[in-house]
Amino acid sequence: MKLIFIRHGEPDYSIDSLTEKGWREAELLAQRTAKWNITDFYCSPLGRARDTAACTLKKIGREAVTLDWLREFDAPIWDDMMKRRKVPWDFYPEFIATHPELFDLHRWQENSVMAEGTVGKEYLRVCQELDQLLADYGYVREGFRYRTSSQTQKNAVVVCFCHLGITCALLSHLINTTPSQLWQGFFLAPTSVTVIGTEERTPEEAYFRCQVMGDTSHLLMGGEPVSYYGYFTDPFQG
């Protein structure tokens, strides 16, 4: 099975849609996705994700199922350094350096900043929603792996149009690590493509493994610079 997470195009948050550049990105993405043999499409309910998906769906005459839990990860925390409520990532280095529990699979939710908000509860909710979706394809969560059977749709290719934060949260669940490690350590550019595939080296026991993360080759091939949204310096354009 392949799970493909696609971040929306460059956003115009004021109207929850795309910038002019974002629309160009979405069109270049559509040229890429139109070549894929997709089983099902799913989409966040937020406008910037729906508009990104619309370019692909129109090009191939398909529809996407809207899933509310694919919206951007919504569990704000109080950042004492910034003196405001914010998303539970993009912490300053000095905070990360003094809170190693954020990278402990069994303790990250106990961090005082995370515990102050609803991060743990929301993380559990979206992971359970993902597991239910995977169960529909015959992949049943069992500890740190997924159980399969003769009914499992092992050739399914599923595309989710969504957001940076929720992608990292779901990916951390699939590969059994903390979301903080992905939120802090990885950048997913607008319209970037992340591919997660299953491996079943032991019969009826599957494990998800990341094959591609944050790929923007469709932008580079189309002569469109990679957008910096969600990053704090200029992305590599090579």
Q: Could you please describe the fold and organization of this structure?
A:
The chain has helices at residues 20-33, 47-60, 93-97, 112-116, 119-136, 164-175, 179-185, 217-221; strands spanning 2-7, 11-12, 17-18, 40-43, 65-66, 77-79, 84-86, 140-142, 145-147, 157-162, 193-202, 205-215. It is 34% helix and 23% strand. It has one domain: Rossmann fold, CATH 3.40.50. The two termini are 30 Å apart. The relative contact order is 0.20. The model has no long low-confidence stretch (mean pLDDT 95). It has 238 residues and is α/β, with parallel strands linked by helices.
Structural class: alpha/beta
Mean pLDDT: 95
- The N- and C-terminal alpha carbons lie at a distance of 30 Å
The CATH architecture name reads 3-Layer(aba) Sandwich
Strand order of the largest sheet: 5-4-10-1-11-12-9-8
User: What is the tally of beta strands?
Assistant: 12
- Give me the number of helical elements: 8
The level 1 CATH classification is: Alpha Beta
Key attributes of the depicted protein:
238 residues, alpha/beta, Rossmann fold, two-stranded antiparallel ribbon, 8 helices, 12 strands, 23% strand
Architecture blueprint of SSEs:
Elements: E1 2-7, E2 11-12, E3 17-18, H1 20-33, E4 40-43, H2 47-60, E5 65-66, E6 77-79, E7 84-86, H3 93-97, H4 112-116, H5 119-136, E8 140-142, E9 145-147, E10 157-162, H6 164-175, H7 179-185, E11 193-202, E12 205-215, H8 217-221
Helix pairs in contact: 1-2, 5-6, 6-7
